[in-house]
Amino acid sequence: MVTARHPLRWVAVAGVLVLLAMAASALITNPAWEWEIVGQYLFAPSVVRSVVLTLELTVMGIVLGFALGTLLALMRLSPNRLLSSVAWGYVWLFRSVPLILQLLFWYNLALLYPRLSFGVPFGPALFDIGTMDLIGPLTAAVLGLALHQAAYAAEIVRGGLLSVDHGQREAAAALGIPRARRLLRIILPQAMRTIVPNAGNEIIGLVKGTSVVYIMALPELFYQVQVIYNRNGRVMALLLVAAIWYLILTTALSIVQYYVERYYGRGRA
Amino acid sequence: MSGGSRTVRDRAPGDRALGDLVTGDGTAGGHAMVELRGVHKSFGPLHVLRGVDLTVEQGQVTVILGPSGSGKSTLLRTINHLEKVDRGSVRVGGRLLGYRQVGDRLHELSEREILRQRTQIGFVFQSFNLFPHLTVRQNLTEAPLSAQRRPRAEAEALAARLLERVGLADKADAYPRTLSGGQQQRVAIARALALEPALVLFDEPTSALDPELVGEVLEVMKDLARSGTTMIVVTHEIGFAREVADTVVFMDAGLVVESGPPAQVLDDPRHERTRAFIGKVL
């Protein structure tokens, strides 16, 4: 019997193990990490509240972003030149301007339009409202995140729709299946195989991306730990608290993504 | 096989042939299931159909032969409005396909009306085009449920009967990818039949199959022909044409070169081009 020997592999394994042990030791033995402080703040009510707000911003950003993104993707694929141009223009604009700038723009919209009115276009207004009253920091944050996200979502959904074999559309059309049903029952579920992994990236990106809204003094996770360490000076410990929460959130999302991908992969070897 | 015993209906002598550009006049005469008159179709600079006339009687099996690029598939696709014709008319069951005639002008039908017309016409693709994320049963019930709004129990009972008929009763819950090519095409035929169409179109149904799987698909098609289904089949299977077809149509360069009973077109073709083609494939 011949046994394969991999002496170099064993050396590499030993080396990696030593490095891991050193890293663990550096984390545990250095008192400057202040693990007891980390433990003390990890589940502090103000921190947990900020985690909830982070989650809310993520969910609203993704749901609204992908809803608008799907609409944009369908417009972009429309044979109508005006619709596809508008969708193209939207993606171009909102992908080109940094998110932080967009957020500040929505936050300060009142400087441009002090009052917003709703009614007949170019006609009489039914009611109007002060911009500041309508768009508070939270609305500005959701608006900014969702509109920015929609530009990326549009491209992801468009890519997914294009990845579905043309024969599928033809078969569905030849069977006389109504247009909306064709999209929802035949095309989109197959497009999801391509959409989900990319959307997973986007959602995980957005969980962390919500930290940008700290500039609007919204008490999401990153802002909240800054508030705390500015008060007590435990900078590293509180940054670690934030890092641990981001890890937990993204890990949970990765697990969900695994099952969603498996669902949409059904019927494929 | 009793498929060859079917009678060939008498038709007027003098087959519709080259350059006959007569356009359809009002209603279809007799009981023609399909009637094409002067059908033209171009893709950009490519003139694929150059004035095709074709009549298929109810219950007949018509096999279209011809070299690749002769317009066979495009012709088939105009018969369920997957391709719009540039000129000429397509009638199915005496009714203009895809358009409504008002006076001497044609108006395109609404999407819904076109879809309703399509539910009367089954289409079997070369590459099956089964829906991979749906089970075999769901593939069969989708169109009856959503296009014909039939009750679920009825659609499922019909699906079960059709799967029995194509010999795949035990595969109802399988996903298409787990089946062989021959089985997938049999499912695709059952799916087309689930609409209980008056006409079934086959676009090279065995061309994507391994040679040993061709037979099982042809068997299902022969069974269908025996049951009196009107069929138009684009294929290279000369044996199938000889055994099952009532009419063989030979196409070349976007035109019907000749058509007639298989014995005549296959064994004693009148046109040089037909003779050259048959000589090569036999």
Q: What does the model show?
A:
The complex is a heterodimer of chains A (269) and B (282). Helix content of chain A is 77%, strand content 4%. Chain A has 269 residues and is mainly alpha-helical. Chain A has one domain (43-264): MetI-like (MetI-like fold, Orthogonal Bundle). Chain A has a two-stranded antiparallel ribbon with strand order 1-2. In chain A, helix 3 (45-77) runs antiparallel to helix 4 (81-96), helix 8 (137-163) crosses helix 10 and helix 10 (179-209) runs antiparallel to helix 12 (235-264). Chain A starts with 6 loop residues before the first helix and ends in a 5-residue tail after the last helix. Chain B starts with 31 loop residues before the first strand and ends with a helix. In chain B, the strands form 3 sheets. Chain B has a 6-stranded mixed sheet, with helices on both faces. Chain B has 282 residues and is of the alpha/beta class. At the A-B interface, helix 9 and helix 10 of A face helix 2 and helix 3 of B.
What attributes does this structure have?
heterodimer; A: 269 residues; mainly alpha; MetI-like fold; two-stranded antiparallel sheet; B: 282 residues; six-stranded mixed sheet; 12 strands; 33% helix; globular; disordered N terminus
